[in-house]
Structure formats: C-alpha cells, structure tokens
Design goal:
heterodimer; A: OB fold (Dihydrolipoamide Acetyltransferase, E2P); 2 domains; 5-stranded antiparallel β-sheet; B: mainly alpha; MetI-like fold; about 0% strand; binds adenosine-5'-diphosphate; binds magnesium ion
C-alpha cells in the first residue's frame, strides 16, 4: 500500500490554546480511515487542515510526497462532505452536483454522463430537477456525497456525515458509504464520535482525545487491545480498576491477586486494569474472589445489563442470564480477559496542566 | 382543530387592524387624492388634459431615469465589495463598521449637499487644490456629474445595508464548499455569493433608485437650473410661480406608474430566482 497523506508533527493553536498537539498520521491509498474521539477533541480541525481550510502552526502536511501546508483548497485533489452538507440553496440537485465539473470547464455532455452516473450510484436518479429545499435529510446527504464524488477526488473527507440522520437511516447509509468507497477505490477520511460507526466501517481507526492521537489500528486491534484506559472506555463500556503488577503474569486489584497474560511491567508498577462487561461471568458468591450486590438490571434485547456494587467498585456486567436485583453474586473472569494498561499519558498530562 | 385555526385568524386580523387603518389613512387616501387631482381640472371637471400634457416633459423624465439609473449602478458597484468585505471582517467590529457606513445618514441631508456645493464650486476646495498644481478651474458644480455624485453620496448606505444583511446570512460552509469544488476567490463570488445575494440587490436597487428618481434638492443644489429633474418639476407645480396642482398630480401619477413598472420588471428577476428554489 502506498502512502497518500501524511501529517508530520502537526500542531495548531487558536488564541494561544492548543487544539492539535503534534499529531503524526499516515494515511494509505484506498484506505477507509476514521478519526474517532469525543466532541471537541480536534477531529474537524484535523480534517480542515487536510482539506486546506486551515494551515498548521508547525509540522508538515504531505500529499503524494509533496508538502502542501499552504496550498489553497481549490488546488487540492481532495473533496469534502461537510458536517451540515453545505449544499448550494440556489441550485437544484443536478446543478449542485455539476458545480465542480463546471468550475473545471468540463464539456456539458461529459457533465451529463457523470452526473447521471453518480446519481444512480447514490440512488437519486430522477431527482435532477428537485430543489435542495424539497429534499429530506437523507437525500441531501446523498447529494452532498454525489457532489463531492463526481469530481473523482483522490481523497474524500467526511465530517460526521450521518450525524443528523435517524438511527435506521444511519445504519443503511453506513453500509452504502462503505460499498461506494470500495467500488470507487477512493481514500475516505471519515470523522465521527460514534465508536460503533467507526468500528463497523473503517479499515483503520484513529482514536483522538484532547488534540492528541491515542491509538491507531484496525477496529479489532482497537477493540481487543486498547492501549490505555481512555481508548478502552471510549471504544466500549468498560470496568477500569486501579491495580498493581506484582510480577509478570500476576496482577493485584480489588484486594486480590489474579493471574493474567501480560508481562513486561516493572514489579509493583501501578497500572489500569480493564475488564469488558461481557467478559464477566456470574457465579455464586463463594465461588469467586470478588462478590457484590446487584443494584440494577436492564433488559437490552440481546443481553441483560447489570450494575453490581462490591466493597469499593461499581461493576457493569453484560450477561445473557439475569440476577435478581438485591441478590448477592460472585464475579469471575479468565486471565486473558484481564487487560493491563500503563497509567495513561492523558492522565499525567491532565495533572500537569492543572 | 378548525375552530382553533379560525380563532387564530381572528386574532391576527385584530392585531393587524391598526396597521390596516394606518395604511388606509396615510397611503390609500393620499393616493386616491393624487389620482383625483390628476384627472380633474381646477373646477373639479373630469379631464385627460393634464395627463396628456405631461408628454411635453418627456426629456425631463428621460433625464431623471437616466441619472437615477447611473447613480444606482455606481452605488451597486461601490456597495457590493464594501458589503462583502464587511461580512468577512471579525464579528466584533461589525457593528462599528456598520455605524461608520451609515454615519453620513445621521447628518442633515441639506447640510451634506451644501457641503458638496462648497467642495465643487469654481472657487471651491477641489478647484483651489487643482489650481495649486496649475490645473483648472474646471466646471464641477451645476453638471449632471455633480447630480449623480450627490445621489451616490446620499443614497450609498441604503445600498450597502440590504446587501450586507443578505450576505451575512450566507453560511460560511457554503463558501468553503465552493472552494472545495475548485473555485478561486473570484469564482466563489460570481458563482455563489452573487446569486445568493439577489434579494439584497433588488431591495438595494429599489431603495436607491426610487428616492433618486424623485429627488429635487440634489438636482437644484448641485445641478443648477439646467438639469431639472421630475422632482423639481412637481415641486414647481405646487410651490413655484407656475402653481398648477392638477398638472403636479398628473406628473406624480405618471412617475409612480413608471417606477411601478420598473420595480415589477426587476422583481420578476427576483421571482424567477425563487422559482428555481422551489
Ligand atoms: N475557529 C476557532 N477558534 C477557536 N477555537 C476553535 C475554532 N474552531 C475550533 N475550535 C476549538 O478547537 C477544539 C477542537 O474543535 P474541533 O476540531 O471542531 O473538534 P471536533 O470536531 O473533534 O468536535 C474545540 O475545543 C473548539 O472549541
Ligand atoms: Mg467536529
């Protein structure tokens, strides 16, 4: 795979406030990359730097081997699907989509062919003459995608493109977008704060927080091997406990020692211990090292979600078996379901800045 | 449901009634009186005589339309970039800039126009300065150019404000979308900003053209006797030696019809654009 875009130590501050903190990221050709992180972590800002709407204070933006830090947007072979669509209200569907080709002075006959073709791809054939104001949210979304794709960019930037759609439509569009990306073989850089969306669609997920990249990896990597407590918590609901690494393969938490599969920590190093809610097995109190009282049970369709209170921790458990609220249960987990993480950089930096 | 709707209808009718009354007293009645005088003679007899005799002033009508049109075009060409630049400035200084733009309106209209007389006169400031470098004196005052200048100076803010109001509402992301699709700065303006500011353009044109075509102070003070406009002509029929209110009413009526036609034609452009939107 070939690198198409690289960010090298890109930093940006607004009014003296750091927004991006030395970000480095390689994006490969034909890849579906998702920038994932909580609102305000700098995803849109990163996308705008790639699109050419913002210039970084320092660092390099490289496109196909050339530095493009201050190349204006209209000279980049990159198109954007904007967060609120940003369709042209004075033009109908056809003219909106034809806009980019007309600016580039393409032949009207070629424009017609390409617009017709792309309308078919996004399932909007027959909507050519419609005004933008008479489209539903989902249809406007498709026009925005078609308007960008018709220019056959090397890279398509999408800023929370499905954020304004209802759940069912969002799921449908996720699948369609992924199909489009695979059939046209265009690099997609996709921004979302929805972890499920990121895991479903992406080849590579970039988890961001506070203007820093936390982890880059495949959805499986990110889910199964989160690098720190922030990623673990953001990617799925997690139980995160304080622990101490006694020695290789042995961790102490919640007043007990547990076997685990991690090594390479200093003896007695303080760590974060992450246990997924679905990895906790319910048993009788005398069958487990840790026990607690069930405080709440909610049926979630496929599983029950339970809150359990032990001496010094509130547990979240997903299980196909329900326990009675108020009853006492024991909790077991296998060694390979105990994930040990170094105390995060995020926490140390937060403390420093305060 | 239905009753509810009816109730709302009644309510809106009631709240609107003071304005309807206002419109009848101050707009409909005066218009009816103008029409009445235009079609009667001094004895109250119905006649077409005055309407017909307006024909002899065709050249004055043409001059008024011509000068008002030129002033409107100049106002537009000056105001458009100013309004655009205003919208691109930092939000914090918007209100200050708007105040500066409208500052001339705060000064008395007569005073403003007098000021131009002293600037443009043969012994005025401009000719004095030109004299220093061995030029002139040029005849600046009492020319059609001076009249147009007076119109532009007085009415420019009324062009800037509606343009600014429309442009500030254009979503920034739409302009970025245009750049994203390959537009350079000028193309963004011609392909997106201009079509989206049509409503501001038509109302700006209306707010400059209508007062400009009927002005009499500007033409009197800056145009001298030789550049009579319709406004002067009407004024003379009511206040001058040639007292003739019936003719004055007839000229006013024709002027109104002409303005109405021009505005209708222009709103047609505006309307066409709306149809594209629908
Ligand atoms: N033009 C701007 N001026 C000042 N601060 C900004 C500006 N744009 C964004 N920010 C700040 O930068 C941070 C990151 O914003 P953004 O990249 O939009 O986050 P995200 O897209 O991840 O929600 C936020 O704290 C936001 O308040
Ligand atoms: Mg954002």
């Amino acid at each position: 795979m070939e690198k198409i875009i690289s960010l090298e130590n890109v930093a940006l501050a607004f009014d003296g406030e750091t927004i991006l903190n030395n970000i480095s990221l390689d994006i490969y050709d034909k890849e579906f990359v998702t920038l994932l992180g909580p609102s305000g972590c700098g995803k849109t800002t990163t996308l705008r730097i790639i699109g050419g709407f913002l210039e970084p204070d320092s660092g390099n933006v490289i496109f196909e081997g050339k530095k493009i830090n201050n190349l204006p947007p209209h000279k980049r072979n990159i198109n954007t699907v904007f967060q609120r669509y940003a369709l042209f209200p004075h033009l109908n569907v056809y003219d909106n989509i034809a806009f980019g080709l007309r600016v580039k002075k393409a032949q009207e006959s070629e424009i017609r062919t390409r617009v017709t073709q792309i309308l078919k791809l996004v399932n909007l054939s027959g909507f050519e003459k419609r005004s933008i104001g008479r489209l539903s949210g989902g249809q406007q979304q498709r026009v925005a995608i078609a308007r960008a794709l018709v220019n056959r960019p090397k890279v398509l930037l999408l800023d929370e493109p499905l954020g304004a759609l209802d759940l069912k439509l969002r799921k449908e569009m996720q699948i369609e977008l992924k199909k489009i990306q695979q059939s046209l073989e265009i690099t997609f850089i996709y921004v979302t704060h929805d972890q499920e969306e990121a895991l479903t669609m992406s080849d590579t997920v970039v988890v961001m927080n506070n203007g820093d990249i936390q982890q880059i990896g495949t959805p499986q990597d990110i889910y199964n091997e989160p690098i720190n407590a922030f990623v673990a918590d953001f990617i799925g609901e997690s139980n995160i406990l304080d622990g101490v690494m006694r020695k290789d393969f042995l961790v102490s938490m919640h007043g007990h020692d547990f076997e685990c599969v991690d090594k390479g920590f200093n003896d007695n190093e303080e760590v974060d211990v992450v246990i997924r809610p679905e990895d906790i097995k319910i048993t009788t109190p005398d069958n487990a090292k840790i026990s607690g009282t069930v405080t709440n049970v909610t049926f979630k369709g496929v599983h029950f979600e339970m809150s359990v209170k032990s001496e010094n921790f509130d547990w979240l458990i997903h299980s196909t078996k329900a326990a009675e609220p108020g009853s006492k249960i024991g909790m077991n987990f296998d060694p390979f379901d105990i994930h040990i993480m170094r105390k995060t950089k995020v926490r140390c930096c937060d403390n420093e800045s305060e | 449901m239905n009753q509810n709707k009816k109730g709302n209808g009644m309510l809106s009718y009631l709240t609107a009634s003071p304005y309807i009354l206002w419109m009848i007293i101050f707009i409909i009645v005066p218009l009816a009186m103008v029409a009445y005088f235009a079609f009667t003679d001094s004895n109250g007899q119905f006649t077409f005589e005055y309407i017909k005799s307006v024909g002899q002033y065709t050249n004055i009508f043409i001059r008024s339309i011509w000068l008002a049109a030129i002033a409107t075009i100049i106002c537009f060409l000056l105001a458009y970039p100013v309004a655009y630049i205003l919208t691109r400035l930092d939000k914090n200084i918007h209100s200050t800039m708007i105040m500066l733009v409208t500052l001339p309106i705060w000064m008395n209209f007569l005073l403003r126009t007098y000021a131009w007389m002293t600037l443009l006169g043969n012994n005025g400031i401009i000719n004095s300065i030109l004299g220093f470098i061995g030029l002139g004196p040029y005849k600046l005052l009492n020319t059609q150019g001076a009249v147009v200048l007076g119109m532009v100076y007085n009415y420019l803010p009324y062009m800037i404000l509606p343009l600014y109001t429309v442009m500030i509402k254009i979503d920034k992301s739409i302009l970025e979308a245009a750049q994203d699709l390959g537009c350079n700065g000028a193309q963004v303006i011609f392909r997106v900003v201009l079509p989206l500011s049509v409503p501001g353009i038509t109302s700006g044109i209306t707010m400059v053209f209508v007062p400009a075509i009927s002005t009499f102070i500007i033409s009197r003070m800056l145009g001298g006797g030789s550049n009579l406009l319709i406004g002067d002509l009407i004024e003379m029929q009511f206040l001058g030696n040639s007292y003739n209110p019936n003719l004055g009413a007839a000229i006013s009526l024709i002027l109104m019809v002409i303005v109405l036609i021009i505005m209708t034609v222009m709103n047609q452009f505006d309307g066409d654009d709306d149809k594209v939107l629908i």
